[in-house]
Design a protein that fits this description.
Number of strands: 0
Shape: elongated
Family: Belongs to the MTFP1 family.
GO biological process, one term: mitochondrial fission
Structural class: mainly alpha
InterPro entries: Mitochondrial_18_kDa_protein
Pfam families: MTP18 (PF10558)
Number of helices: 7
Protein name: Mitochondrial fission process protein 1
Strand content: under 5%
C-alpha cells in the first residue's frame, strides 16, 4: 500500500498510504456483523473508526503547523486542515458508509426473510456476507460524493479549492 511512495522518496502518509487506513472501515465491518454480534461490538467498531478519523485530523493539523511555520495566518491554516480532514473523514469513513452498510444489511435480512425459507442463522450470515462484500463497492462513490459535497459547500467558506492533503 505505501511501497511505491517509499521507493520514490515521497513521504508516506500513515493514515492514507498504509494498513492504518483500514481502521477507518471498522464501522462498516461492525455494521456487517450487526445481526450476529452484540450491539456493543458494533458501537466499538464506530469507536475505532472515530479514533482513526480524529488521529488523521490531528496529524493533518500538525503537518499544516509545520508547513506554515511562523507565517501570519498559521492558526487559520491549521484549523482549516483539521476541520477539512475531520469533516471529510467523518462523512466518508464513518457516517455515510456506516449508514449505507446498515441499510444494505437490514434490507437484505428483510428480503431474505420474505423471499426464502432459510433458517434465521443462515439469513444472518448471508446478510453479513452481503454487507462485507458491499464495502469495496461503496468506497469510491462515497469518497467522490463527499469531495463534491465539501467542494460545493464547506471548502467555499475557507476558499480551499481542493481537498486538504
Amino acid at each position: 500500500m505505501g511501497h511505491s511512495k517509499e521507493k520514490t522518496g515521497e513521504k508516506v502518509d500513515i493514515y492514507r498510504d498504509t494498513w492504518v487506513r483500514f481502521l477507518g472501515y471498522a464501522n462498516e465491518v461492525g455494521e456487517s456483523f450487526r445481526a450476529l454480534v452484540p450491539v456493543s461490538l458494533v458501537w466499538g467498531s464506530y469507536a475505532v473508526s472515530t479514533m482513526y478519523v480524529t488521529a488523521d485530523a490531528v496529524d493533518k493539523g500538525r503537518k499544516a503547523a509545520v508547513a506554515h511555520g511562523d507565517n501570519p495566518g498559521k492558526t487559520t491554516r491549521v484549523a482549516v486542515a483539521v476541520v477539512d480532514t475531520f469533516v471529510w473523514q467523518a462523512l466518508a469513513s464513518v457516517i455515510i458508509p456506516g449508514f449505507t452498510i446498515n441499510r444494505i444489511c437490514a434490507g437484505s435480512l428483510y428480503l431474505l426473510g420474505r423471499t426464502t425459507k432459510w433458517p434465521l442463522p443462515v439469513r444472518k450470515w448471508t446478510t453479513t456476507a452481503i454487507g462485507l462484500s458491499a464495502i469495496p463497492f461503496i468506497i469510491t462513490p462515497i469518497d467522490r460524493s463527499v469531495d463534491f459535497l465539501l467542494d460545493s459547500s464547506l471548502r467555499k467558506l475557507y476558499n480551499e479549492g481542493e481537498k486538504h492533503k
